[in-house]
Specification:
Length: 492
């Protein structure tokens, strides 16, 4: 019972600190929509880097990743820690720099708003928002499921699943609703530093207890020799390349990440951030995947449906430290979900509510609608998470969440064309997005092949988005020349 009190004290204490940061940020936040969504485009290098970093880290980092390494070896580090880190850094420059320029010049807050203005199309603006919300809703739900399950595991079931998910949801709504992006960015920075610290402490603790890194690695390869050979696990070169490309391109269009391209205070901030990005990714994913791989050599038994990391920590570290790492896992989930809630609210208010419902809404009114939107969005995903956690079905929502990276990746190539090719048209953009998303959804839900010529279907859908956008653009009317000139591209 004492261990339970320590564990809950650590988690609740962390949540209260996050809420306190949100209250301080609220006192500094204007009541305008731009300040609520983008912190008035005033974010510096450290906060931009860590808020992007923490936003991308969900339950996968602490639970799914180590589980994958436990079952199939540590090679995923090559996908997430190296290839994907470098690919996303390049996209951060190619997309983020251009978005920052036009966003600062014209006051854009969302991707849909920017593309709608580029092509003078409310329909395109609504389409981008609709597609983004389609993939975002189940992804937020999965974070709440992960939080509920984490607290069940930490407390041996004393805290029920629904209570754990509700606790995290209430805290997120409170500080996101209060403080907007400024509070989210500050808490993300706290969460990012916290996550890095506890995961490296876990590595150091277990390595010290078990004779060092060499001994742990030797134990791993003795128990699973295939883990020492590249390609010896479940991975093929085509699979790893496809995963890296789809995840990197998907991340670039994730609403909570894409909006961060608008929020830097100056261009030097962007340049420093994307240059440091691969280093920061490696600093997190290397220890997370090493712990999962080492657990094989340590003889950790993982029952079906369980996570290796809590079991490993319970075996080799005291209860208070295991609670710290679980708090780090909750931080990962919250730092993803809080940004998703804020971005989902902005896409709803800026791209659906304002253009289709209340075009003349004041900035202050939009800000309050956004705060209500955060609560409604979070409440809806929470109810869905309860149904899934209680065995109530909603398998389609879970599938959407699991495949969200590929869904967002279908937006990225049309976005690149809009930013750099003056010949892109409104009809071309709509054709590229709609065709790729429909074919991708068909492969997600219908019994269609997962690969073609050994390459993942998501890559072929991305190619379809390119071909459809270019082909339709060549035979349809371009956007007004003045719109293209706003983006620094000439109409062909």
């Amino acid at each position: 019972m004492a261990d339970l009190g320590v564990s809950l004290g650590v988690v609740v204490g962390y949540l209260l600190i996050a809420l306190a940061i949100g209250v301080v940020a609220y006192r500094l936040t204007d009541r305008t929509a731009e300040d609520y969504y983008l912190a008035s485009r005033s974010v510096g290098t450290v906060v931009l880097l860590f808020t992007t970093f923490a936003t991308l880290l969900s339950a996968f980092t602490f639970f799914g990743g180590p589980n994958l390494a436990f079952s199939a070896g540590p090679e995923w580090i090559l996908v997430m820690g190296l290839m994907d880190g470098i690919l996303f850094a390049l996209l951060w420059y190619a997309i983020g720099y251009k978005q920052w320029l036009v966003g600062k010049a014209h006051g854009y807050v969302t991707l849909g708003e920017m593309l709608g203005d580029r092509f003078d199309s409310t329909a395109l603006r609504g389409l981008v928002a609709g597609v983004s919300l389609l993939w975002l809703f189940p992804y937020v739900m999965l974070q709440q499921i992960g939080a509920g399950q984490a607290l069940v595991g930490l407390t041996d079931g004393v805290v029920p699943y629904w209570a754990g998910a509700a606790l995290i949801t209430v805290f997120m709504v409170a500080y996101v609703g209060l403080s907007g992006l400024r509070g989210v960015a500050w808490t993300d920075t706290l969460q990012g530093v916290f996550m890095l610290g506890v995961i490296w402490l876990a590595v150091a603790w277990i390595a010290t207890a078990e004779g060092g890194v060499s001994a742990l690695t030797a134990g791993m390869t003795d128990s699973a020799p295939e883990f020492a050979a590249l390609g010896g696990g479940l991975y093929s070169p085509q699979w790893m390349i496809a995963q890296a490309v789809v995840i990197a391109f998907g991340v670039a269009a994730f609403p909570q990440v894409n909006q961060r391209f608008f929020m830097a205070d100056r261009v030097e901030t962007l340049k420093r951030s994307f240059a440091l990005w691969p280093v920061l990714v490696l600093l997190l994913f290397v220890p997370a995947f090493l712990l999962g791989s080492w657990a094989v050599g340590l003889g950790i038994e993982v029952p079906d449906g369980s996570n290796v990391l809590p079991l490993l920590l319970n075996e080799y570290t005291p209860a208070w430290f295991a609670a710290l790492v679980i708090a780090g896992a909750l931080a990962a989930m919250m730092s993803s979900s809080d940004s998703m809630l804020l971005s989902g609210s902005s896409y709803f208010t800026r791209d659906l509510y304002r253009p289709f419902v209340a075009p003349d809404a004041s900035d202050a009114r939009e800000g309050w609608v956004a705060r209500v939107g955060v609560a409604v969005f979070a409440g809806s995903t929470f109810l869905a998470s309860l149904l899934v956690g209680a065995g109530g079905g909603l398998d389609a929502l879970v599938t959407l969440g699991d495949t969200a990276f590929g869904g967002y990746a279908q937006l990225t190539i049309p976005l690149l064309l809009a930013l750099y090719w003056g010949g892109t048209t409104r009809d071309g953009m709509i054709a590229g997005v709609v065709s790729a998303e429909l074919v991708y959804l068909a492969h997600v839900f219908l019994p269609l092949p997962a690969t073609y010529l050994t390459w993942d279907f998501a890559l072929w859908c991305m190619l379809l988005s390119l071909v459809a956008t270019v082909a339709v653009s060549t035979v349809t009317a371009p956007a007004p020349a003045a719109n293209a000139e706003k983006f620094g591209v000439g109409a062909d």
